[in-house]
């Protein structure tokens, strides 16, 4: 019997736990604040940012939102980051990715104060993660780790294959799985015979951004399958699109022991982990300890 992980439910339970920590902070006079910065007209990015703002409101976290015209020079974004770094009401800063091509993404990530870098993408925070001493775990890999743990998936000694080597998911995911004593393979677009690798895996994390790249024929019975992809594909419905993962769900479910759906799998956990990191940032900046789950 395949277990379908309910990411919405796990994320809700985590948000409830975080709400109690926000209360603790407020009782100590600390109002946590998260700044989201959007320099894009990409509809998916707009959706994610507004969901993040709504999540903050529900938890009692102050949400500060800045929108920058994507046609404007990069300096405008750099200036906004400098201002948010200096703002004592802002504990966490998130610049929604991707940024326009004329903006130097590395400069954006480097410019955010590492203590407010709730995405965990600043080079200092990347270094800390790789060294096994993370300040902020990047939200999506952290969400995947949490879901696997919640579902009781044993990582110690497991063969894990990550499909995709992005800075946001694939690379940090590899380090988190290594730190859980899994044997990790990171496959990517140049990998020869991907199916041979995924068929040998106990855990597959699909994060390539390619709709339905991994199907049931590429899996062995009993695999834990985590689908990080959230691809919008054209559909004849009101929205004009539907969300499809990087895993071909129906055939993969036939083989998987546990599997995450899209939507309602990893996506809600990505957002919950942003709240987690924001609570952690506020707690450490204001020196009010809270016990995080
Ligand atoms: N600064 C960042 N930018 C981006 C990140 C990130 O972690 N930090 N990750 C991705 C996308 N992402 C976060 O912004 C994200 C993806 C998916 C979801 C989500 O809730 N998905 C829902 C469906 C939502 C919908 O209806 O479209 C689900 O899967 O159930 C949230 C955040 C890129 N950029």
CATH fold label of the largest domain: Rossmann fold
Q: Give the count of helical stretches.
A: 10
CATH superfamily of the largest domain: NAD(P)-binding Rossmann-like Domain
Mean pLDDT, all residues: 98
Bound molecules: the ligand Nc1nc2c(c(=O)[nH]1)N[C@@H](CN(C=O)c1ccc(C(=O)N[C@@H](CCC(=O)O)C(=O)O)cc1)CN2
What CATH first level of the largest domain would be assigned?
Alpha Beta
Query: How many β strands by DSSP?
Result: 11
**Biggest sheet details:** 6 strands, parallel
Specify the overall morphology.
globular
User: Ranges with pLDDT <50 over ≥5 residues?
Assistant: none
Main-sheet strand order equals 1-11-8-7-5-6
Family: Belongs to the tetrahydrofolate dehydrogenase/cyclohydrolase family.
Domain Tetrahydrofolate dehydrogenase/cyclohydrolase NAD(P)-binding: 138-285
Keywords: Amino-acid biosynthesis, Histidine biosynthesis, Hydrolase, Methionine biosynthesis, Multifunctional enzyme, NADP, One-carbon metabolism, Oxidoreductase, Purine biosynthesis
Subunit structure: Homodimer.
Textual characterization of the structure:
By secondary structure, this protein is of the alpha/beta class. It folds into two domains: 29-116, Leucine Dehydrogenase, chain A, domain 1 (Rossmann fold); 139-268, Rossmann fold (3-Layer(aba) Sandwich), CATH 3.40.50. It is 42% helix and 17% strand. It contains ten helices and eleven strands. The chain has a six-stranded parallel beta sheet, sandwiched between helices. The longest helix is centred in the first third of the chain and has 21 residues, at 7-27. The relative contact order is 0.17. The mean pLDDT is 98. The structure holds ligand LMY7XDAE.
